[in-house]
Specification:
This protein is of the alpha+beta class. The chain has three domains: 162 residues, no CATH class; 266 residues, no CATH class; 146 residues, no CATH class. 46% of the residues lie in helices and 9% in strands. It has a six-stranded mixed β-sheet, sandwiched between helices. A four-stranded antiparallel β-sheet has the order 1-4-5-6. A three-stranded antiparallel β-sheet has the order 2-3-7. Strand 11 and strand 12 form a beta hairpin. Helix 1 packs across helix 13 and helix 2 crosses helix 5. The longest helix is centred in the N-terminal third of the chain and has 29 residues. It is elongated, with a radius of gyration of 28 Å. The relative contact order is 0.08.
């Protein structure tokens, strides 16, 4: 903390460590560097906190807040001098990062800064020091980070914490609360809610973490109220996480090592967080300021919970890496297609998702191999359901913040929650999940690679990711699973493009004119399709495989969709493309690739587009009076769609 007297040496990240992380892993060297970088970041933020507070209060005025801050930082400096290991552990704690990030991003700065006193009191007690310090009170409670929550009688604004080197008390005007000692501190008592420490053991490997529903900064934005867990809910979480740990150790040992190395705090969720893609609350989230913290809602099974841990560990690794290395540079406001979200996302979020889902694909790939090999389920993987998630008051989305007082990225950066929002296909088999996540990650990496956003280090990182993904090409899911993944991806993309891409009006006018004159679709229209946010089309080819067993039902759905006037909204268009793809209809690829063009031309033609005429397929001789379905029109437009990537200016 004596930053003024130190000479800081910039941290450099070795290329081989960058390659290892890009490939999806990391190893001890990379993790040590990431931990060191995050500790340095928190120290610098702590220094900035003190300097900003002094600049704001040059005469020492402003009530108790400056005293809380000064006294807290002085006590932290004493901890650093007498118990450096304890101090380092405090700086490494994800909740410390969450607190500092909240302040740095413009949270309630005075109240947030005052929490330095509570942090210092907890650290001093853990260090075995004699101390006395006044701390702020929130809603009648005092949070001692890493220890628990005290309810000192009569305390409204201020309480006093004292320690004699062995014991600690939190006193209010009407009495005090003694902090339990040793393992007893993790249990609830009179006026005390202990921070639960969980120890999961499997095959000689141990993962220890805190189950934290108390810390006000656990969701990474404005402070939230504590939500103590009752004994039953805590036991359920311990059972679920223990089962997930056994699964990881048994079948994914390298991933288990990463979870143990990275995750030190798990925040149970029950509806917290804003709605994502129409679903209430977060399913899981990583807070970029709090590397090592994973927030989890109840999951439907042990395998999905284990996959969620793997997913969030990747986010933590990448957030820590971005402290050291710039991987992308894109203009402010840039947005792009994300295969797992319904809204446009910044490139940084696309990279985060691609990196996380690549690891999830690896998880389901290994699970697929285990199923094919007939490996028995891991014992104790179904301890029972957790309480159902309920929609509580949703805090503001920190991703919407617009101010970053000391230069931290305000949006889609370390302060924004990185949320696992995409649902898996309805078929929950590991094989389908692998195919689904593999295609999502590969599509995102391809989009990033084709852009001008990556830096030199970013290109290197993406190359390592692509090599890992390419190495899985021989892992062939069964035809049914691959068909579901391909069609599901196409349906999502059709829906997204129809909702978010602008109508290509100049191209539409040219194409409508050609259609009215009975001519083939003019390839020259491809040069008029360039518009912000337009993506190069993909070729959605289904594998050579027997038709899915529900061919008759799919054909009936296709006919029903074709009977909808004007083909309906984005959902209907997406289902139409999906049904046509499942039936291997040769009119489907153009619709799946550029639905916004097909819909715009279909709408502009009005009644002339109409319902399908007998034998009309959009190819061969064109009659100006022929009525076409959206699929026939898509087939007519196929030469334009195919020419788009090579069109001038594209």
């Amino acid at each position: 903390m004596n930053a003024r007297s130190r000479t800081f040496t910039p941290l450099e990240f070795p290329r081989q460590a960058l390659d290892a992380l890009g490939a999806g892993g990391g190893g001890p060297q990379a993790f040590a560097l990431l931990r060191s970088a995050r500790r340095s970041r928190n120290l610098l933020l702590l220094r900035a906190l003190r300097e900003r507070a002094r600049a704001a209060e040059p005469d020492g005025g402003g009530g108790r807040v400056p005293a809380y801050l000064e006294d807290g930082l002085d006590l932290l400096r004493t901890v650093q001098a007498h118990a450096p290991a304890v101090f380092d552990a405090v700086m490494d704690d994800p909740m410390t990062g969450a607190w500092l990030g909240c302040w740095a991003r413009g949270g309630p700065s005075a109240e947030t800064a005052a929490e330095a006193a509570s942090l210092a009191a907890a650290a001093a007690h853990r260090a075995g020091l004699r101390f006395r310090i006044e701390v702020p009170v929130r809603s009648g409670a005092v949070m001692l980070p890493g220890l628990g929550l005290a309810l000192p009688p009569g305390a409204v604004d201020t309480a006093e914490v004292t320690g004699d080197g062995a014991h600690c008390r939190v006193d209010g005007p009407a009495g005090g609360v003694r902090v339990p000692e040793g393992d007893l501190a993790t249990r609830d008592g009179d006026g005390w809610y202990g921070l639960r420490r969980v120890r999961c053991v499997a095959e000689g490997r141990t993962w220890t973490f805190r189950l934290d529903s108390l810390n006000p900064f656990r969701l990474g934005h404005d402070p939230v109220e504590p939500r103590p867990l009752d004994a039953e809910e805590a036991a359920r979480w311990e059972a679920e996480l223990g089962a997930a740990w056994r699964l990881l150790v048994s079948r994914h040992p390298a991933r288990a090592d990463e979870v143990r190395e990275v995750v030190s705090s798990v925040v149970p969720l029950r509806g917290e967080g804003p709605a994502v893609d129409g679903r209430g609350g977060w399913l899981s989230a990583t807070l970029g300021d709090a590397v090592g913290l994973v927030a989890l809602a109840p999951h439907p099974g042990t395998r999905t919970l284990a996959a969620g841990l793997v997913h969030e560990v990747q986010h933590s690794k990448l957030c820590a890496l971005l402290d050291l290395v710039d991987l992308l540079e894109s203009p402010p406001g840039t947005r792009c297609y994300s295969p797992w979200r319904e809204e446009p996302r910044p490139p940084s979020a696309l990279l985060q998702g691609a990196y996380a889902f690549m690891a999830v694909a690896a998880f389901w790939r290994d699970e697929t191999a285990a199923v094919r090999a007939g490996v028995a389920p891991v014992s104790g993987t179904a301890p029972g359901p957790l309480p159902a998630a309920t929609q509580e008051k949703a805090p503001d989305d920190p991703a919407s913040a617009t101010s970053a007082p000391i230069g931290l990225p305000p949006q889609a950066g370390p302060g924004a929650p990185l949320v696992a929002a995409a649902e898996a296909p309805a078929d929950a088999s590991p094989e389908t999940r692998f195919a689904h996540r593999y295609r999502q990650a590969r599509a995102a990496v391809a989009e990033l690679d084709a852009s001008d956003w990556p830096t030199g280090d970013g290109r290197r990182f993406l190359t390592a990711m692509r090599r890992t993904l390419d190495s899985w090409k021989d892992t062939a899911p069964g035809p049914r699973h691959l068909n579901r993944a391909v069609v599901g991806a196409a349906e999502h993309r059709v829906r997204w493009r129809l909702r978010h891409l602008p109508q290509p009006r100049p191209a539409v006018e040219l194409l409508v004119s050609a259609r009215a004159a009975g001519r083939p679709a003019p390839v020259a229209a491809a040069a008029l399709l360039r518009a912000p946010g337009t993506l190069p089309p993909d070729c959605w080819e289904l594998p050579a495989a027997p038709p899915p067993p529900d061919t008759a039902g799919t054909a009936a759905e296709l006919e029903a969709l074709l009977s909808v006037p004007d083909a309906g909204g984005p959902e209907q268009w997406a289902r139409l493309a999906a049904a046509a793809l499942l039936l291997a209809d040769d009119r489907a690829p153009a619709l799946a690739a550029m639905p916004e063009l097909v819909r715009a031309v279909h709408t502009a033609l009005g009644p002339a587009a109409g319902q399908p005429a007998p034998g009309a397929r959009g190819s061969g001789p064109v009659g100006a009076g022929t009525a076409w379905s959206p699929l026939d029109l898509a087939h007519w437009l196929l030469p334009v769609v195919a020419a788009y990537p090579s069109a001038p200016g594209a």
